Amino acid sequence: MKKTQNLRGVIVTGGSGALGRAVVAKFLAAGDRVLVPWILKAERDAIEAAEREALEAGRLVLVEADLAEESGARVVAGALPDAEVLVNGVGGFLGGPPVLETELEVWDRMFRMNVRTAVAMSRAVLPAMLARGRGAIVNIPSRAAFDRPAGLAAYASAKAAIVVLTETLQREVHTQGVRVNAVVPTTIDTPANRAAMPGADFSLWTPPARIADVIHWLASDASASVRGGSIPV
């Protein structure tokens, strides 16, 4: 008789984007139950189209919520209270002008989209994870957090804050069974990036599926000894 494996609960924010869909597909292929929050109809439509079979089978759950608000994060956590894995993949990019010419609204938007969402979701899922003594959080900053290129101060600062969040949060929960790590992608091979940089060497870019492999590994028992790391991919 085939042994039935218990489904893990997995929350993937930003699950409708090119990388997010690859992450969702990876966890679904492993037999997990996945929840994807959405705020725009286009986001919901994208993940519905990509994973209609899993949605109809009840293994993919879609929840409308603004993750930058604590109330929205709590709605998501309450919809999958047994979540063992949180992938903080939602975020955004704005850049170009130097600091002198970058409006404060851009800084606010970068921190709201990239940092506030990760903090709100981590706060929402941690009580249940700590109560069970088990859980994994995987954050997704960017290489810009380390390279800090000119013209991207607001974006790079927000992504650097995700690295700090990863390391600090791990120190706070390291004795309570919860692991916190980060995956640091370089340029991801997506249709949007190819359109934005048509002259680039696409062979040097990383396919979303390869990044999803590392995220899945960090959420698994195979990486139990990896804590507070920022893994370049």
Quick overview of this protein structure:
This protein is α/β, with parallel strands linked by helices. Helix content is 46%, strand content 16%.
- Nearest-angstrom radius of gyration? 17 Å
User: How far apart, in Å, are the first and last alpha carbons?
Assistant: 39 Å
Largest sheet: 7 strands, parallel
Q: What is the tally of helical segments?
A: 9
The run of helices and strands is: EHEHHEHEHEHHEHHE
Give the amount of beta strand, in percent: 15-25%
Overall number of strands: 7
State the helicity in percent bands.
40-55%
- The averaged pLDDT comes out at 94
In which order are the strands of the major sheet placed? 3-2-1-4-5-6-7
Shape: globular
Descriptive account of the structure:
The chain has 233 residues and is of the alpha/beta class. The protein is 46% helix and 16% strand. Strands 3-2-1-4-5-6-7 form a 7-stranded parallel sheet, with helices on both faces. Strand 1, helix 1 and strand 2 form a beta-alpha-beta unit. Helix 4 packs parallel to helix 5 (104-132). The longest helix has 29 residues, at 104-132. The N and C termini lie far apart (39 Å).
